[in-house]
Amino acid sequence: xxxxxxxxxxxxxxxxxxxxxxxxxxxxxxxxxxxxxxxxxxxxxxxxxxxxxxxxxxxxxxxxxxxxxxxxxxxxxxxxxxxxxxxxxxxxxxxxxxxxxxxxxxxxxxxxxxxxxxxxxxxxxxxxxxxxxxxxxxxxxxxxxxxxxxxxxxxxxxxxxxxxxxxxxxxxxxxxxxxxxxxxxxxxxxxxxxxxxxxxxxxxxxxxxxxxxxxxxxxxxxxxxxxxxxxxxxxxxxxxxxxxxxxxxxxxxxxxxxxxxxxxxxxxxxxxxxxxxxxxxxxxxxxxxxxxxxxxxxxxxxxxxxxxxxxxxxxxxxxxxxxxxxxxxxxxxxxxxxxxxxxxxxxxxxxxxxxxxxxxxxxxxxxxxxxxxxxxxxxxxxxxxxxxxxxxxxxxxxxxxxxxxxxxxxxxxxxxxxxxxxxxxxxxxxxxxxxxxxxxxxxx
Length: 444
Fold this sequence. Notes:
Blueprint: H1 2-7, E1 22-26, E2 29-32, E3 37-40, H2 43-46, H3 55-67, H4 78-90, E4 96-102, H5 105-122, E5 130-134, H6 143-148, H7 152-155, E6 167-168, H8 188-200, E7 205-210, H9 227-237, E8 241-246, E9 269-272, E10 284-289, H10 290-299, H11 312-327, H12 330-346, E11 354-360, E12 363-368, H13 384-394, E13 397-398, E14 400-404, E15 407-413, H14 421-442
Helix pairs in contact: 3-11, 4-11, 5-10, 8-9, 12-14, 13-14
């Protein structure tokens, strides 16, 4: 009966499967209702930054829920005003002064796309509507965000409903889609973004959207240092808005408050999510320059909100999470512990089936291959990633599954910033055992 109850909540559960039942969580640990202790090496879906079980966040949420359970998003509440001021004064890249909130990352990107279209519609350039995305990218599960994204698995079956928008190649040095090598390539992949704009017709292009560091789609794709400055210049020259999707990387994950800060770039619109509340409440954010918003205000066009945008208690939780990140210097800690996690995972490069280890801060990925010399992936039917994740749980570590062809089998790591060195070593040890267990099943 308990297994059947657990299955009912998910549309994705396979017949006969039972979801893992989590009874509680604390620090970097998950505890099942059967007493198993699992190291959360991925912070859930790369969400948890300040660690599980922080009472002061729960108390901040509860106080605000009692004071103002709900207020329509355009109304001002103390928690909303306080959070906006906190973000603009202490967190956002300079120039991003307009703030909006949603219930999560997909809604935030969707809203950013609508704001982009509204900007050009109100600025007297209605022909600009196309958004250039990239292959091996992920921006959300709404129809608009699937359309701009390049996650083929999640787009599958929905193609009739998706607008056919231009795509540029991913910045994927391990398997360069252009057949080149860095640095002799001259970062040709960023030139391909400009080529896509020119093919589409610059007068029809509204924006380019990109993750500063790729998420779990292909696994922590870190671009060369000159990629983002050149991308910003390309967009500026063609009058195209630059949207940075930092749903996964924002709020400290890569060792900077936002990943664009690694390259000194301020986008026209920045999208945040996961780390804004550290998993304590559903929330996302859209942050824009005054120049983006000005034509919309001048024309008096309404950009419709979502029902739970800027939910008062979620705002209070977010404000408290930001306070903890600052007080405990957890962004700096993410950079420090990220170096240690990267070095521990790099030890796996001696394994015959570990093709690449890549990442920045506390966002890392391991790409698994059948043949290291040729970078040949395992057959799709092998289902290696799922086997590794299942074996990890059995060995007491949860890692995040990823991968889309040609990066077929990718394991992503993104633990809470509060992790300590001994726990990083445990991640390495338990993942190694999980990988061997999964490969044994493959080779039976």
